[in-house]
Amino acid sequence: MSERVKYILDEEKIPKYWYNIESDLKEHTPEALDPETLKPAEISKLEMIFAKGCVEQEISRERYIEIPEPVREAYRLWRPSPLYRAVHLEKALDTPAKIYFKYEGVSPSGSHKTNSAIAQVFENKRCGIKKVATETGAGQWGTALAQACKMFGLESRVYMVRCSYEQKPYRRAMIELFGGTVIASPSTMTKAGLAILEKDPYCRGSLGIAISEAVEDVIRYNEDTRYCLGSVLNHVLLHQSIIGQEAMAQMEMAGDYPDIVIGACGGGSNFAGIAFPFLGEMLRGGRKVDLLGAEPAACPTLTAGKYAYDYGDVAKMTPLMKMYTLGSSFIPPAVHAGGLRYHGMAPQISNVMRQGLMRARTVEQLDVFKSAITFARSEGIIPAPESSHAIAAAIDEALECKKRGEKKTILFNLSGHGHVDMSAYIEYFAGNLANYDYSKEEVAMALSCLPIKD
Amino acid sequence: MSERVKYILDEEKIPKYWYNIESDLKEHTPEALDPETLKPAEISKLEMIFAKGCVEQEISRERYIEIPEPVREAYRLWRPSPLYRAVHLEKALDTPAKIYFKYEGVSPSGSHKTNSAIAQVFENKRCGIKKVATETGAGQWGTALAQACKMFGLESRVYMVRCSYEQKPYRRAMIELFGGTVIASPSTMTKAGLAILEKDPYCRGSLGIAISEAVEDVIRYNEDTRYCLGSVLNHVLLHQSIIGQEAMAQMEMAGDYPDIVIGACGGGSNFAGIAFPFLGEMLRGGRKVDLLGAEPAACPTLTAGKYAYDYGDVAKMTPLMKMYTLGSSFIPPAVHAGGLRYHGMAPQISNVMRQGLMRARTVEQLDVFKSAITFARSEGIIPAPESSHAIAAAIDEALECKKRGEKKTILFNLSGHGHVDMSAYIEYFAGNLANYDYSKEEVAMALSCLPIKD
Fold first, then answer.
1. Where exactly are the structural domains of chain A?
2. Contacts of A420 in chain B (CB under 8 A)
3. Which of A257, A313, B57, B372 is the most exposed place for a label (fewest CB within 10 A)?
4. A422 and B170 in contact by Cβ < 8 A?
5. B residues 118-147 lying closer than 8 A (beta carbon) to A
6. CATH T-level assignment (fold) for domain A6-13+68-110+233-447
7. b (16+ CB within 10 A) / e for A304-331
8. pLDDT of residue B283
């Protein structure tokens, strides 16, 4: 047979430590502010919302944080995830570039989200919490959290944006199959939900409303309930560092090292997961690597946003974070990559971008699906629309190599499969999809409402 | 960490030969009969329908048939597939038994079907065929064949039973994504389809009708088109032998050997895939193993069928095969495991059953879903309803071990994931599913029409 296509690590090679990018950044990521006082958020207040262990991880500047043994034990269900050399895609593109991808779709939820769900649920269990609440848009995070709760014996309540609840019955069923309680948001279970429904009984919901409901739920049942978030925050990015750490070991197996590392950017956790361990190596004097974040043209946070303090949600209940943002009141066009429709970007990624340590680009929706199909037909894996932003960027880089006759090594993160997103492909094949650009006027309007002026 | 949960073989360990059970059977499997003459089917006639290489494999009695290098190369996309020790399920059941499962859901189609699709498409390509036609019920086989055709540059036409075409848009989209042409059956493309539609313009179709249309398609475009079938036939079972061969190597890695090997039985290819290599070992004087086929109570071919010559399809166009059958005109109740709703059973499995070398049992539909959910919540994999018949049988065996205090080693084949079958879970959760037993009267009626009387 010709050269290998899969690089599989032994179970023993699941990383023993999460890697914390904060330790290697010269300029540290600005801390979160209390939304009421606009002063640095107090730990005791954060611990009302999040598990104590998660808050500790959130503010840590240690380089390595030990992965608790029960978390590593749970990771063994599917980790280490495979790294593939995309030989068939290379042939299809006729490129001199070498293309590798790390595949996170083998997890119970079908995406990288489970890496953090298990870590967060364990920290909740460790401090005696019995129930967690969260929101979910596209549904991957809700699935991941429900499955993690089932493993550790906690209850989960998932506020699912009503339009997803109705349009994605398969995702809802997966959450229920793993024992989670799914509540269509806005709901009548919270004051926030009731207030919305009073104004508009037919409201289809939004991520912002769902976050408000989940947080209200947590505050009401604070004795035994905490909140979990699937991206953006430092501790979530920390948990995802196992992706890049495994990928480094697998690239070593392949006798190779990436020139370019690519990830799709929504809240930022899958990009950071693959990119930060390589960035850390570079910051500590190791080999240089070109980090590329791919975001939807409909929601170009890193490429068209402003670096400023902003709320994490539409309802302005969360701490303020310094990040690239399109304004927390901006509602992106309804592209079929719900997981990337977020107005902000993880503060650590924003900080890295600000320091010129990575670059970013946008991908148009039709290119996303075209690339996804090219990839699926070559490699036999149907990718999620979110993950396909990374594929599109990788294909463009590989074609650029072809034009210039360069033999670069490209690595991208395939963060999830698209088995539950076939409705988006159906729309694409039916010719019902288009490229949607964001409205510059709407972003300007949203940015004019930022809580702290320059 | 505690003991391993995954056993992963290196790419180089993909078997180099398919294993042919016929070589080790003392009583050979009776040959197929021509439906017109009721005499042994002539090779030249079979080659009008199937690729020459497939016909050669169909009638071979060689023990090992070399896997062509391009097929092994294609297998590397996802093979060797993982073997898991189901430690979390064992804990949930509190059983002294050890439970292992081979997971075929990692393939491009999400099931074991791709193993044979790639082999069949390659044989078609090798003899100059440009297009293949097939039928699909549940959709796994259609997906597998379309993907294999895309890899080898052939065209595929998939006649999809109309009710699946309408109820399973995700499966249809997957086939199209991989470049296949999907035709709802009955269609206006064939005489067979037109005749049906003339009688009933709203006919929802059946596997029997779809087979008739695919075969008519092949006969009409015979110069460059051949037919492919996803189960039942000897050469399909041969291709699936890589499952059991890999599992043997993986059980060796685990330092273990199964006492019981379990597979779900529809047409029989996934059961034979895992069981026959172990059976061969036993027939050649090796260790004894208890082979158990699990079939739906709604379609109990092995447990309530008659061993007799019968047609493979409802329309009586295929060669006659000696097999356990409920009668080719029997239509099983509409349980949510479409891939197991087949009136007959692979002739080689029927022969093995007849000789007392395996046993079979039925599983009720509600037990299928109950077991599937227990498994998913323990192991983090959502199984296909078809595959869940094997899970139900494995759980029962493990509980029996608990009752008797026996430490048996159980191995089952998890033939596919259920990501595209979530609608069945939704029905289950909604309380809309029931146990469906077959009608003894209908089977007696169907059996009274067998073409050759005792």
1. 6-13+68-110+233-447
2. 419, 422
3. A257
4. yes
5. 147
6. Rossmann fold (3.40.50)
7. bbbbbbbbbbbbbbbbbbbbbbbbbbbb
8. 98
